[in-house]
Design goal:
Abi_system_AbiD/AbiF-like, about 80 residues, single chain
Length: about 80
């Protein structure tokens, strides 16, 4: 029960953060090196995101790619995806 509450708080906080950053900067805020202190860690994280997206079998990722075409980089997906 406690973990259910923690999960809801985490999802809410994460959603609000992504919403704010996407509107304050742009949908690709997570690639903006000016917003981060540790650039090597950012690059490592973006690489991990790209690997996960390439490996993903999620329907919404497949549908988004079908509608938008392939990307130069998997991290070309918007922050809210």
């Amino acid at each position: 029960m406690l973990f259910d509450v923690i999960e809801k708080i985490e999802i809410s906080l994460r959603s609000k953060l992504i919403y704010h950053l996407s509107h304050e900067f742009d949908p690709w805020w997570f690639q903006n090196t000016d917003l981060f202190i540790n650039i090597p860690e950012l690059i490592k994280t973006l690489s991990g995101i790209e690997e996960e997206i390439d490996r993903s079998k999620d329907i919404f990722i497949k549908e988004h790619r079908k509608k938008q075409g392939e990307y130069e980089s998997a991290t070309d997906l918007h922050g809210w995806l």
